[in-house]
Amino acid sequence: MNKNFYITTPIYYPSNKLHIGHSYTTVAADAMARYKRLRGYDVMFLTGTDEHGQKIERRAAEESKTPQQFVDDIVDWIKDLWKLMDISYDKFIRTTDPEHKETVAKIFKKLYDQGDIYKSTYEGLYCTPCESFFTELQLNNGKCPDCGREVEKVKEESYFFKLSKYQDRLIKHIEDNPDFLLPQTRQNEMLNNFLKVGLEDLCVSRTSFTWGVPVSFDEKHVVYVWLDALSNYITALGYLTDHDQAFNKYWPADVQLVGKEIVRFHAIIWPAILMALGEELPKQIFGHGWLVINGGKMSKSIGNVVDPSILVARYGSDAIRYFLLREVAFGQDGNFSNTALIARMNSDLSNDFGNLTSRTVAMIEKYFDGQLIGPGHANRFDAHVKQTIKDNIALMEENMEKLFFNVALEHIWTIIRRLNKYIDETTPWILAKDPDHKDQLAGVLYVLAEGIRIVSIMLEPFMPTTPAKIWAQLGIEPGALTAWESIYTFGSLEIINAKKGENLFPRIEVDKELAALEAAQTPATPPAKTPAEEVPEITIHDFAKVKLKVGEVIASEKVKNTDKLLVSKIQIGDEIRTIVSGIAKYYTPEQFVGKKVVVVTNLAPVKLRGIVSEGMILCAEDEDQNLIAIAPEKDIATGSNIR
Ligand code: MSP
């Protein structure tokens, strides 16, 4: 049997603001990599950074750095973040690695030589101030989606990849291999929205910037984004080099994890490139959902990103990793909130699991001086406990194979809850009162300790540091008794040497912690305000920086403990924003719902009374302090731009 397992995450754009959403992909991949290692696989877990392109070139210039210096600094920061989150990658690839660049140039040349890449002209819509190309669909009412200014049609000489040639083979591959692209919904999306509509050839080079891999036979061109970035999955394995053992060993990848917005690149462009190269396709692309905030996207430009390092510093990486994989059904979007995080830590980690462990260890210490030899006396509840463990191990394994992390964790918790129930059923504190029941008591505590040992091993992929702390508390030496195979034999544990250790998951005081966490997450210096009387004259370009859109109030309520604030949900096109406004004196929530309003959509979010407000509703106020919300003069769709 092939015991190799190759798993990849996307390679990240260099940013020192990677947020909890970014960590989500990597934590998921890490859990899978650790699981497969425990199951005896020879694992290659790849992650890295996607460092080329015009944006990096520009941002480096803004900081008076060379692009290389700029990315070097950030990559160190990203590696530190992964260390903090216990990400056990086997290789970290950078698209600026010399070997990656050489291989990308070779791939480009090979595809050109065989006729899959050809030279033509790229016609695009260009925004000069932003130095960016856009497609018709990306424009906002015909204007640049970034700055709102006019765009112009520009022609640029470019190389193209014959993507269209692979359309039929791609459709067939997806239809013939139901596990190639998961979840199922993504298959339908790719087939119906792209593949069956028809593919256009893909522009794969640029001449408008230089920070990239030069085309070896035409150096004014650099290889454009996707061919460079996607190739990382094979260049990292030594593809097209004289040391391609890793490629021969690990390719095709077993699972490539990607967020839903880049599924198209991975399920269409990437397989087409591989087909052109004559290489096998990955066995599976899994497009997971997003971690969202109040139903909306987490993004640096909105300013609502959650910094994972703050959370890890307060609660440890095991708790955060657990939350990410337990709270969200992998494949779907899931909401992140501090409240949900703390609730899970209290209920699952502290109440269910932490208590089970600390009570068991404490009772073994109290009633047996910490020493217990098992298996002891059986009782009538044991059979059901053992059966529950056996069944849920099988279910956990089955769900791990499908990447259903939340369901796998739910099965582990079924065991934990069963063990807690076993304490209630067997009432060890009552058994302890009667010396004649000593053997029975020993039997009960043994079952608990053995159950905890099994659970701790099953938790290892998700929580890399907690299991070892539990083993220390039960006196278990890592080795045969902590190997995955040992969980199938209930009763493997013989000698227990219990010793109380640190409280693994102390209970959190919700209100106090929420306030402290919010304070830790709020930037220290609020942006400086311009006094009203000193408002300077602005140009039309300054004004264009304010993005105004039509929204509709779809829900509204008073913010608790204030008489001024309403918190409302505003529909703006496809998006729903949460906005807090000081209008409660002028509108009741009932009056406000259903109104069309004008929303400033690119205002940095602020936290008001613990609620992140993602924009501002425009109002007019007269000298008598009468206030009204500004409304469009006639009905018009939400999301419409206001200029
Ligand atoms: N560089 C490209 C990928 C090239 S792969 C050949 C890229 N980088 S990224 O830094 O923007 O995103 C990296 C990963 O983080 C993507 O899978 C993306 O979906 C994921 N996430 C970014 N924000 C996210 C959430 N809020 N929630 C979940 N995942 C998200 O795209």
Q: Identify low-pLDDT runs.
A: 529-534
Shape: globular
In percent terms, what proportion of residues is strand? 15-25%
Structural class based on helices, strands and sheet pairing: alpha/beta
What can you tell me about this protein's structure?
This protein is of the alpha/beta class and 643 residues long. Among the domains are: 352-497, Isoleucyl-tRNA Synthetase, Domain 1; 540-642, OB fold (Dihydrolipoamide Acetyltransferase, E2P). The strands form 8 sheets. It has a 6-stranded parallel β-sheet, sandwiched between helices. It is 41% helix and 18% strand. It starts with a strand and ends with a strand. Helix 2 packs across helix 3 and helix 14 runs parallel beside helix 17. Bound molecules: 5'-O-[(L-methionyl)-sulphamoyl]adenosine (MSP).
